[in-house]
Fold this sequence. Notes:
Layout: E1 7-9, E2 17-24, H1 26-38, H2 42-49, H3 51-58, E3 59-62, E4 69-74, E5 81-85, E6 87-91, H4 122-130, E7 134-141, E8 144-149, E9 154-157, H5 168-174, H6 181-191, H7 203-211, H8 214-228, H9 232-265, E10 271-275, E11 281-285, E12 294-296, E13 302-303, E14 307-312, E15 314-318, H10 320-323, E16 328-331, E17 357-358, E18 363-368, E19 376-381, H11 387-396, H12 404-433, H13 438-452, H14 457-474, E20 477-479, H15 483-488, E21 493-496, E22 508-516, E23 519-520, H16 536-543, E24 548-550, E25 553-555, H17 558-567, E26 570-572, H18 576-581, E27 588-591, E28 620-629, E29 634-641, E30 648-653, H19 655-660, H20 671-680, E31 683-692, H21 699-704, H22 707-710, E32 715-723, H23 730-739, E33 743-747, H24 752-761, E34 770-777, E35 786-792, E36 805-806, E37 825-830, H25 831-840, H26 842-851, E38 852-856, H27 860-872, E39 877-881, H28 887-892, E40 895-898, H29 904-907, E41 910-912, H30 919-956, H31 964-982, H32 1003-1028, H33 1045-1050, H34 1069-1089, H35 1103-1121, H36 1125-1131, H37 1138-1175, H38 1184-1193, E42 1205-1208, ...
Parallel strand pairs: 21-33, 21-39, 33-38, 34-37, 37-38, 39-40, 40-41
Antiparallel strand pairs: 1-2, 2-3, 2-4, 4-5, 6-7, 7-8, 8-9, 10-11, 10-12, 12-19, 13-18, 14-17, 14-19, 15-16, 15-18, 20-41, 22-23, 22-32, 24-25, 26-27, 27-28, 28-29, 29-30, 30-31, 31-32, 34-35, 35-36, 35-42, 42-43
Amino acid sequence: xEKEELKIVNKDEEDEMELQGYxxxxxxxxxxxxxxxxxGGFLLLLLYxxxxxxxxxxxxxxxxxxxxxxxxQSTDDFKRWFLAKVRVMLAPGxxxxxxxxxxxxxxxxxxxxxxxxxxxxxxxxxxYAEYQPTQIRYFTLHSTKxxxxxxxHNFEVLTGLEDREVTCSTVHSEHSTGLTSNQQEYRRLxxxxxxxxxxxPSVFKLLIKEVLNPFYIFQLFSVILWSADEYxxxxxxxxxMSVISIATSLYTIKKQYVTLHDMVSAHSIVRVSVCRAxxxxxxxxSTDLVPGDVxxxxxxxxxxxxxxxxISGTCIVNESMLTGESVPVTKTNLPNPGEGDxxxxxxxxxxxxxxxxxxxGTHVIQTRFYSGELVKAVVVRTGFSTAKGQLVRSILYPKPxxxxxxxxxxxxxxxxxxxxxxxxVYSIVLSIMNNVPAKTIIIESLDIITITVPPALPAAMTAxxxxxxxxxKRIGIFCIxxxxxxxxxxxxxxxxxxxxTLTEDGLDLWGVQRVEKGTFHLSEENAYKDTLxxxxxxxxxxxxxxxxxxxxxxxxxxxxxxxxxATGWILEEATEEETSLHNRIMPTVVRPPKxxxxxxxxxxxxxxxxxxxxxxxxxxxxxxxxxxxxxxxxMCVVARLLGEKRMDAYLKGAPEVVASLCKKxxxxxxxxxxxxxxxxxGFRVIALAHRRLESKLTWHKVQNVNRDQMEANxxxxxxxxxxxxxxxxxxxxLQDLRRAHIRTVMVTGDNxxxxxxxxxxxxxxxxxxxxxxxxxxxxxxxxxxxxTWRYADNPSKHVGKAxxxxxxxxxxxxxxHTHKPQDQYHFAMxxxxxxxxxxxxxxxxxxxxxxxxxxxxxxxDQKTELIEALQSVDYFVxxxxxxxxxxxxxxxxxxxxxxxxxxxxxxxxxxxRTPNISCVPSLIREGRAALITSFCVFKFMxxxxxxxxxxxxxxxxxxxxxxxxxFLFIDIAIILLVVFTMSLNPAWKELVSxxxxxxxxxxxxxxxxxxxxxxxxxxxxxxxLWVRHQAWYHIWTPQSDACNSSLRANLxxxxxxxxxxxxxxxxxxxxxxxxxxxxxxxxxxxxxxxxGKPFRQPSYKNWPFVVSCIGLYIFMFFIMFYPVSAIDEFLxxxxxxxxxxxxLFFIIIVNAVVSVLVEGGIDLWGAKxxxxxxxxxxxxxxxxxxxxxxxxxxxxxxxxxxxxTTEAKHPLPGNPPENGxxxxxxxxx
Length: 1229
């Protein structure tokens, strides 16, 4: 039996797993089968719940290469187990990217000869006869196929063309011609059908899966046991409740599957035109596509059925499925660096080349092309490997959400099972001592277990969540994951996206500030002036954008749209017919409106700012476009004025970038101050630049010129200032959250200084607090990664002077602390810095997220990483965003709220109809109310089972029990009524600074439950023993009548014979006394545990609960003081003297007073007493972020000074970093 080390699949990815190989062992399977028969199928259930036990019980360990079954365990905190069967596939080769036509036929070393090319000669027929197919081992898990790779001796996922690490030039040279039919079929063996198939399970499958839940199995066991003991009515009631619970659950799950299936299947199968290697174009279904196929994008647009990279033409795409923003994006063809340019020839990456990649599920609105040349794209990924496939897979197979409440609930149940075990042994011993028949012993001892672990618990626990879900729906918050409502009650940090969440969606033009001869003019409100119509500034605003006419309406980036609209110019595009008449793309033309043009050529007072004095026709054609690149932070166009030979280049982008590309003498000296002044006020600033091109640059040369050549030696034109207004509700909501001690963090794709400014405006960063910017640089030229700390100066300290950033680099140890800011500093960093810190400063990351408030320029996957980093220091994280670019973060957070009703809402647990963040405090309040309700219900259900357990245990001592209808009355009339109404308390009106406990295993909570158990035990024992010491007491018989003493005196001894008593010995004075006392105890603990402020409205406002309790009290007192023979007969209670009822009444009153006083005392002083006890032992905070905050409060070098730099250490091979730290402070020479 050969063993080997654990293999890792999906290394360093979110779904990383350890893998072990197993071979099925026949004798083990036989032993397990025998065990299943002996346990009546219970062992089979146990193995179904525990896949790792199943594999280890039926298989023996072997090498992964020879495995028949693989056992996988996730490497995350949840350590989930999965098993998968290894299958074998026959294929002509091992590598899907092998070219079948070029393979030779003699058998290779691995014992197979490849598939020959199509031909009809005898030689080929003979080769076919010799052909030996290759066996390829694979397994499927979570809609992903893992293939065995002999080179790396492990299973691997085939994602697509990127597996080959193709360069941009290779995509053009080797993959632009298409595949033959044979190659396509061969690749489809490996990559499968191009379809994101969401199978909706049948109701029967879902039912089996739901019914095999451990709790329902326990309920089935209970029902069988009660039926054997003739408790038919209660068994029927539990069956009825379970059926309703299962039906509701099935309906919800089925509905979610159908919704997802409908969302995915819409437009998933379309007809596409595919280029074949023989230059033919054939029609095919999108399901036939494989990586490497070349598809033709139709001119009237399509929904992309796969991820593909454009190799010719231009596409205008709506990517709202991915980004949540329904703004059309222009996609250009992948640049072809050519054979000579090795440096510029980078490996194709979907992330880096997303401006050239068409993603699955996105809508291609229209295409632009050269005459006679088709718009083509090479298929890169198909099926579940695509961007849309990954999103659907993450929804189908979500990571479990770890929550202390549920873990503690299981621990609590184990404690109850332990108590039940004591009762189980006690009842067996007692029954044997009293010579009770074996059948009765078995039933009654097992009955103790079903009493202690209440079968109605899941229904009771769900009630509070269902009510909270209904209340959320009323305020426009929809929930697809109800279990998360409880978790939202624990949130102590909320991340917000900026644009569209904290601020309005669009931008408004605030003003422009032109530059002339290297100095700034005064800012102007707009550029819609006849004096500026022919200026280069307005020409740049009118041409430098990626706007397009779709159905006669201008559309594109909102910023571009606002900028172009501010000029008042008109944009005209060539029609498809016009384009096809020419041998090149007809340029897009922009021209000013007639009313802005002078009626005839006149001399303008600003001679030097005029372009030309052509009055008859003044229009500019856009000859070439270099689209906006977030990596370069700029866009550029080449344009030509009608009738002019020389062309102009116009540049627009981030001010710092544009200024760096301009001639120094054209950039004003006070540029940095002016820019910082605007960004600190929260304005979005765009800079413009211009350059006259040489006359030798013709149209054809411009089409092939390098972007870098074009964007050099520009002349600085000035700034456009855009305003992104805060939503009206933002500041108030953030203030509420801050008062409730809930941290707020901004995660945005926007500029850093703008984000800091918005954070100050909305109150996320208070005015007096300091902002520290962490600028991290990756390792370069042998130097280690380093972080430079810059302090963004407080705007309030600078009056009339533009703020500056301080930046010096000296050794940390040279600085002595004079003032240590505590909680008055915030870290801000960009996505690039975050990536460097995550990779090179892992132990610094946790310190940074403790006070990190602004994270700017963050990519979608970085948002998810940030959420995980915050969770790693034990924060309960909420995320509020409006786009599908927040999808990963919304799903990963403990409570994700989407403000968009697009695809983001499918991934997000919560979706708000109100498009602002006011839904966040509402959700937290409802979460807190639901959480406290869960605690109340759990405590009540625990007490209910213990009270019943005490009653039954005391009655067992006299070989008695509670009657069937007594159980029924307690469980249905009292318990269910109380449980389902005590959950109805609405949430408290405002968020308080206190948070509810996160788990059941907390000091005050356990103390509360324990004291109430002791009180109930004490008073039940008093009643049980006291009744036996009454003067009128005797062993009850059917002839007994304690209410009438004269009749009792006349009874002879023969009437006391046990033969005339009922089989179960239900009717007796002890039973009746305990029934009265315990029935009131259930109501007492229900009222005691039903807490109101500060998380829920007080119980007296919950009228169904109040009415239920009053009704039950009246009924109980009525049957106690005014016996009705029909009710007594039904409940199997006996008549007791009136004075004993008065005694019981006093026992109940004293019990109620003691319970209320003790619970009140625990609420007031319990936590203080426990904290006082804990303080004597120097308690370490449980949450990691509190522990870190304590450490940092005494660290003299934290936070870093504005004059320091931190460098990553170079760990020597085999030597871990000293003190576990991966960074060190370096002195700057």
